[in-house]
Amino acid sequence: MLEVKELWKVYGPLTAVKGVSFSLKPGDIFGFIGSNGAGKTTTIRMISTLLEPTHGTATINGADIIRDPMGVRRQIGYMPDFFGLYDDVKVWEYLDFFATIYEVPPKQRNSVIDNVLELTDLTVKRDAFVQSLSRGMQQRLCLARCLVHDPALLLLDEPASGLDPRARAELKELIIELGRMGKIVIVSSHILPELADFCNCVGIIERGEMLAFGPVNQILRQIQPTRVLAITVLDGAGEVRTRLADMPHVLAAHLEDEHHLRVEFNGDHEQQSELLAALIQANVRVVQFHEEHANLEDVFMRLTTGAVQ
Amino acid sequence: MTFRELVIDNPLQIEFKRAFRRFFGVSRNGTLNAAILVLCVMVYSILMLVVITYREFMSPIAILILQLIMLTFIVPANLHGAIAAEREKRTWDMLLVAPITNAQIVIGKMIGGVLLLLFVSALLIPATVLSFAGDNDATFGKVLAAEAVVLGFAFFLAALSVFISARTKRAFAAQLTIYAVLILGLIVWPIFTSVLVPYREQGYLLFMHPYYALVRIWDPGSFGSMVGGASDQGLFTGWLQLIVYLGAAAVLTQVTIQSLTNSDGDAGPRR
Ligand SMILES: Nc1ncnc2c1ncn2[C@@H]1O[C@H](COP(=O)(O)OP(=O)(O)OP(=O)(O)O)[C@@H](O)[C@H]1O
Ligand SMILES: [Mg+2]
Description:
A: alpha/beta, Rossmann fold, Alpha-Beta Plaits, six-stranded mixed β-sheet, four-stranded antiparallel β-sheet, 36% helix, 28% strand, B: mainly alpha, 0% strand, binds adenosine-5'-triphosphate, binds magnesium ion
């Protein structure tokens, strides 16, 4: 259980984070969205005990980031947005070093290292030197390092940057798997569509303020309370429009061009199917009939102004 | 914090392995480093040959000054990057979020430097012993007192290097700063004091100057005879210097431990 309470960070004249609060439970995958300079990295660094908050605090399973930073560190895995790896060590030695620091008992270290290498698909590179890995492999090694002590909370700051599409898809799978293992995962990213499919929870931050927080669907509904149906007909769209306007649950019908209509609709799925049946009974020649989903990108664009401070 | 946690079980011992590898050819700069190593072995062999051949004309003080000069360069060269290079390579934050104490980090970083300075000093013991043959005034007690100054200063320099490294974002900047401090302390300060106070009282202000202290220990009469007795007799025992150096090193290390900052130079909630 992660509880973030009113976190503030002030840098002189600039307030980077203004009272961010949220809480997450085991298994939650939280997508942290915001434009450049919105305050994502600052928030993540405060939770990871790297940066002292000006006000506010956060607790992870009862351990407070200010009063018990060691207790917090034992439970978190942090992957920075930019990071380097030590030269002149082999992959397994790198992991062994961190396993030692994270107090993994010596007898279990080898099996733990094998497990995390397996999980991140790096088994074949076990004895390679760290500096010989490609960027994507280094990214995965960094993630493997975060996992050696089986943390309850993972803080991944833009883990997908620099990865090719395949590696990105694999990373996504891995994050979903981590959520299934009961960890709390916080992922910050700019690539919104990517986050939407695997996060069960998103937060949108701008200029240090959390504008929206909650499950993706709930946020979408907040932004767009009525549903929009897109209808394409073979001919006579103008006539169809007048007919639609009188039908139940239709709030408004707009003519896009001679084939396309957009309907604001506040009924449920059953009423939606009745609407389609009514159109067909009236001999309207329907080519397409579907609901237009708002996506995260729309929500993001609508909520934020793109202003930076 | 026990000795065991700080030294014997300190995970940062991986640094030795890295330093060793850097010199024995597995990394990119392997060849260059191996060449430097060969050069060092050659210089050392020549030094030993010279000392053996001309031991009748040698004095332990010459070897002790050589040791001091070497350590003045080797210690900062080895330790300037201890923390600054981690910041520069962006590995530092990942160490700070781990459940390892500041003391473990700082002491772990210093162990390697201390071992190296002890190793270099040990290499020079045979030459020091051999050169007794050429100096009738050399006594075992004087050599020990001088060695106390040299090692004490080297420990202090190790602590100073890590202290400066902890306050810098780039290894190169740390190295420049350390050498700038050394130039100020070892060259500018003596010039300044020679203008400021009478020659016979300079010893008070140069108490911590290792080169000055070495000469005074080796030849207590030298300064006094010139100006009719320096007023600071008894200050340059060597052991007094050692105690002050070690005390200063301990204070610097403690300050470093308590003021560690993250990669941006901001303090986190560390105790
Ligand atoms: N050490 C610092 N000193 C002063 N200001 C800082 C510092 N670190 C961050 N800031 C400021 O705080 C604000 C938030 O920065 P932060 O790095 O958290 O943004 P972000 O959401 O991670 O952006 P990005 O998507 O570009 O990574 C920015 O305006 C930044 O300039
Ligand atoms: Mg960022």
